[in-house]
Design a protein that fits this description.
3 helices, alpha/beta, 170 residues, Rossmann fold
Length: 170
């Protein structure tokens, strides 16, 4: 892997993309009173917290937040939530992560809710790399980026990292 890093999103661009995603979520779910943002630990959860804050500022909807922690390298679903998943029953869920690469992480996130009757599930990611191995698409995304498989996307989110927000192609 090359040591060269190319900035693809800076702090201001990440903020703009986050606001745009929040408005898209509202437009797609205007009839809903409650939305559940399901953040995938760690950066996906930080991104979900940001979306929650924006959504609460621009709407009067009840925005709930749920954290899913999972083994992203396991070949089977091993996940925990910070709250009982039954709280998502009959609600609209937005599964949130920082980067969509193969779709494995979002597929595992979806798997957590397979036995819960939900109203609707959508996905939101800051960057969609478009390298699907799983039938997962990003419903809301900040940037779709065509990359080669050897390239990697690094996302820094203040609140998880000590550095300012930025997304890099490595």
């Amino acid at each position: 892997m090359s040591s060269k890093k190319t900035l693809i999103l800076d702090k201001e661009q990440i903020k703009q993309k986050s606001i745009r995603i929040a408005y898209q979520i509202l437009e797609d779910n205007f009839e809903e009173n409650t939305l559940v943002l399901v953040g995938i630990a760690d950066r996906g959860y930080v991104f979900a917290q940001r979306l929650q804050k924006i959504l609460e500022e621009i709407s009067d909807k009840n925005i709930e937040l749920l954290k899913v922690t999972m083994s992203k390298t396991s070949r089977s679903l091993k996940a925990e939530t910070d709250q009982p998943i039954e709280g998502a029953k009959n609600k609209t869920l937005i599964l949130v992560d920082d980067v969509l690469n193969s779709g494995r992480t979002l597929a595992y996130g979806l798997g957590v809710f397979l036995n819960v009757p939900i109203k609707k599930m959508r996905t939101a990611v800051l960057i969609d790399r478009s390298h699907p191995k799983f039938p997962i698409v990003s419903d809301y995304y900040g940037l779709k980026l065509s990359t080669i498989l050897k390239e990697h996307v690094e996302v820094n989110l203040q609140g998880f990292e000590a550095e300012d927000d930025a997304a890099w192609l490595v």
